[in-house]
Write a structure and sequence with these properties.
The chain is mainly alpha-helical. The protein contains 8 helices and no strands. InterPro entries: AhpD-like, AhpD_core, CMD-like. Pfam families: CMD (PF02627).
Amino acid sequence: MTARLENPAGLLPETVKAVNILYKSANSAGVDPAILGLVHLRASQINGCGPCVDSGAREMRKAGETDDRLFAVPVWRETPYFTDAERAALALAEYATRLADKADAVPDEIWDEAAKHFDEKQLAAIVLWIATTNFFNRINVTTRQPAPQNWG
């Protein structure tokens, strides 16, 4: 696949500053980095974002994530590999990514389950991370950014 455009963040350098602020905010609320990684990976899978799926899975693996869990993210409901908190975050990521699929995009039961496992600050960080992931996914998919070819 050939990119339609160089990465827009590279063309508009001020964007990088804003993205760094979002990243720091989402990662400063005390949410387990593995949960943020799972949320990122699942939203990216739903959106078909090759670069984000590729880099997200590779970064999680470098951080110690197991292949069993990485391979099972698309079918997290049908596997025993995830905690209740991770399942709640994955469900929230799916619903918040697929906003147009239902009239009640994020039903109370999805939100309430997440709220059982995370405080308000952590929920805010997870929602911000889902939105940031969707932001990157939309840029990458629209401009046909390829997954890196230089992984060794």
